[in-house]
Amino acid sequence: MMVGFRLKAAVCLLFYLVFPPFCLGIRSIRTRDIDGRDVLGFDRFAEAPEYRNGRGCQVSANDGEFGLKPSSCDPSLVHIAMTLDSEYIRGSIAAVHSVIKHASCPENIFFHFISAEFDLASPRVLTQLVRSTFPSLKFKVYIFREDTVINLISSSIREALENPLNYARNYLGDILDTCVDRVIYLDSDLLLVDDIHKLWNIPLTGSKVIGAPEYCHANFTKYFTDDFWSDPLLSRVFGSRKPCYFNTGVMVMDLVKWREGNYRRRIENWMEMQRKKRIYELGSLPPFLLVFGGNVEAIDHRWNQHGLGGDNVKGSCRSLHPGPVSLLHWSGKGKPWVRLDARKPCPLDYLWEPYDLYKHKSIVAKDQPSLVFSSSSSSPLMEFTSYL
Length: 388
Hints:
Elements: H1 2-18, E1 24-29, E2 78-84, H2 89-102, E3 109-116, H3 123-133, E4 138-144, H4 172-175, E5 182-186, E6 190-192, H5 196-200, E7 210-212, E8 214-215, H6 226-230, H7 232-235, E9 245-246, E10 250-254, H8 255-260, H9 263-276, H10 285-292, E11 297-298, E12 327-329, H11 336-341, H12 349-352, E13 382-387
Parallel strand pairs: 2-3, 2-5, 3-4, 4-13, 7-11
Antiparallel strand pairs: 1-13, 5-10, 6-12, 7-10, 8-9
Helix pairs in contact: 9-10
């Protein structure tokens, strides 16, 4: 046992020295259990219905080949990246359910789940939960090392916005396989009520690296401090652009352009500036505005009816924006599953409820995590792709 541990440690050290600061490797992770059982409340989530491709869907390269695992390099796939953690697992499951339910080719969707290294639930357990809820889903779970970004995060107006996993979207170009050249990033507190393939097929023209619904009527200046706007060098970043607010919870991303332009580093540069001089208040959003504001492929507002969770302080009820709806997004403090369980739902929360696969809602105490584990385990080890 000790020899094996030392061998793994030596291999990890070698990879770190050869490929700093990022590395793709394999970690063995022991699951946690409740009363000796290897569970994450599997019985609390109902298995989703089986959704099949409609006519005209491209046949996946691995379809019908027994024993082959689906490859993320299959060109017929639609790639979706989401974070996956114990706090938002119920929202994530509902979001995935909504995507495949309304997709014309649900079997051609590949989910890339980014999990925190030190989450209450291990990536192994989260993987098992997703597999038990969606047995036929094509997906992969990656481990995001929080020390990648923890020293770049500054305090925000709401503690939840300081979660390192919120910054995982900055590193998708490094985390995902290099063959994945395009991805849709989705937050965990939303629902699709339209075909995801429509969003996937929206072109990113010219030099555009990302596409998102823009809101040019919003007061853009409020997203940055007076110290930012009073500094002639900093505020000059928008001198030749006409920036509009956009929400980073729904983005189409060209990962080829992202990698070539080293946009991860550009975002990190602004985060480092924030550590020296407070230039914004809102977590992971402002660096994206600084880098991409005024150079975003404008997508129809129907693809992000955001703000349904209210503001970042009170989480009050809000109504839909005028116009058609393809995606409902509970950004803000209020989350539909929390308000429904507390029997204080907003009217639009009832639209989220049919996608909720969580069965035993009554056993979750208010303000307590829904997934609780003891530290003991006798379960075998399982391997995961890890982002180091």
